[in-house]
Amino acid sequence: MRYLFITALVLFLFGCGQPTKQNTNIDKAKPVAYITTAGDKIVFLEDYYRVYLKTIKTQYASRNKIYEGEIQDSIFSKYFSKSEYSELVKITLASPIKDTTGLRNYVSEITNNHQKIEELITSALAASNKFLKNDSVTVYIMPCNSDIEKINTEMGGVSGLTAGSKQIVISIDPGVNSWQEMLPYDIAHEFNHTYWTKMNLKTAQWTLLNYLVFEGRADSYAHLICPDVICPWTKVLSEKMEADLWNKIKSQLKNQDMAYQYNIMFGSKNEYPLWGGYTLGYHIVQSALKNHPELSPVEWANLAPEKILEMSDYK
């Protein structure tokens, strides 16, 4: 559950302001799900964006209202209103896209790459299911937001969000050369989140330690599935930077303030390094696994964050 959510949150809080409600017609766009050989589904959502782009040609001044009706409300109501992390999806969808020219290009590129996307996701889900079992997962494909093009590029052209125990949302920029390499990695990362949500969400408390291990587990699992992929958000800290960050936050591991947790995980200007929490969480989990190589993926995927910390070299 990575940058797709937090960048949307930033745009929502500091962007165009609250859009105005309007009636929606969720039947205007009717994507047809692609069914994989294992029975998972892939749903391409660019039809909703295509309807939006067509409508604003004659109603450009009302584009924020149209965005809310044709994309935000329509997609959320049809697919995510009952998801375990529905509020995160709502925030992700809440930011009208300013660069409509860039959006049009993204929509076209995703449409042109349907077959390749289907192949990569089908293979990645099959590989992810070898160690952890979670059937009937649906992956939803959205175009990237061109308003955050720099972030899209830094993330390899792919970002993801777990909507719940059976739902993954993936945003793709096919214009970034590494997107085909990063897509299977992101699927494995988010798949780990879906499995954990299915098995452990009801008993979890969302502390900073939980968040660190939640992401560290997902990246550890993604590297198990895609060992050759270089993941930028797990390699941003030097040894000194990591030691400084750990010393700064280790007394706050029980902190449940989400704003504070986001600053640690994603970085904040002049205080916490970009993606620092992701790198630290990954290294905590990797340290625990190195110390206990006898653990199977099922075993360490279900360990409590406190136990993983205890097994690691981070004291």
Distance between the termini: 26 Å
Strand order of the largest sheet: 1-2-3-5-4
What structural category do the secondary elements indicate? alpha/beta
The helix fraction, in percent, is 40-55%
Characterise this structure:
The chain is of the alpha/beta class. The protein folds into 2 domains: 3-201, no CATH class; 208-311, no CATH class. It is 54% helix and 8% strand. It has helices at residues 3-14, 46-55, 63-80, 86-92, 100-112, 114-128, 149-154, 179-200, 208-225, 239-249, 258-266, 276-291, 297-301, 305-311; strands at residues 34-35, 41-44, 138-143, 158-164, 167-172. The chain has a 5-stranded mixed β-sheet with strand order 1-2-3-5-4, with helices on both faces. Helix 1 (3-14) packs across helix 4 (86-92), helix 8 packs across helix 9 and helix 9 (208-225) packs across helix 12. The longest helix has 22 residues, at 179-200. The protein starts with a helix and ends with a helix.
